[in-house]
Amino acid sequence: MKIRLDKFLSLTGAGTRSEVKKIIRKGSVTVNGEPVRDAGTIIDTQKDPVQYDGRYLTYEEHVYYMLNKPAGYVSATRDSRQKTVLELVPECGRRELFPAGRLDMDTEGLLLITDDGKLAHRLLSPSHHVDKTYLAYVSGFVTKEDIAAFHEGIDIGDEKRTLPAVLQVISAGEPGEKPESEVSVTIHEGRFHQIKRMFEARGKEVRYLKRIRMGPLVLDKNLKTGECRALTGEELSALMHADCDKTDHELYEEQF
Ligand code: URA
Question: How far apart are alpha carbons 189 and 127 in whole angstroms?
Fold first, then answer.
């Protein structure tokens, strides 16, 4: 990729755009072994080795973070009133990062933050949605009829019913004043408030929602709420090769 020297330096983390301009002017940066003082010099990231104070700088075209989103943050790049998920990411400001997908303000869990528009499109476009699994606490007792209805697809007031989803009961509380079920749900789409609306259509309320899987990417159990980390090479390669066309029928069949 061809890129201005100052932009390259700031993307590698050497400093802000104005800081790296000063660094370049001082002559501390070499391209192909020669000091370069013009911040606007165009370099080829594949061919031109760049050194700063004797250290080679490497450039990743894109970055990929797994965030364990806390409640209270909006899944947007900017918002005039609410805190955004990007505020939880260290590289925020240096790259044009965005959340690949949305979680409601009160939903927690796995969110991919990247600046790779192509990958995000592949993972999220309506024709290619990857499976997403959520953990939820739901009012009342989730029944076999609920499980079957999720599999059939539910009318949530949209033009089309939802695609088959896999609902599994993890535990159901003792009958009492406020019975509650702990469930996992896997959906193959990403409609607005989808899980909440699916349960609402069954007369139940989602009291807590957390995404724990998106395609091959599983939320790291060691990542505390509000923390993020770069994806490992293995995770990234699995995401790049994610089979976005697979439906969750197989998962349902395994259950019955
Ligand atoms: N479904 C919802 O209702 N909310 C989310 O945040 C994600 C899926």
Answer: 9
> Ligand 1 centre from 9 Cα, in Å?
38
Question: What is the Cα Rg of the chain in Å?
Answer: 23
Read off the pLDDT of residues 137-162 as tens digits, 9 standing for 90 and up: 999 999 999 999 999 999 999 999 99
Strand runs labelled E in the chain: 2-4, 29-31, 34-35, 42-44, 50-52, 55-56, 64-69, 73-74, 83-84, 98-99, 108-114, 132-139, 166-172, 180-187, 206-214, 217-218, 228-230
Distance CA 140, CA 206 (A): 10
Which atom of ligand 1 lies closest to the CA of 103?
6
Structure-token pair, residue 86 = 């990007």
48 is catalytic: no
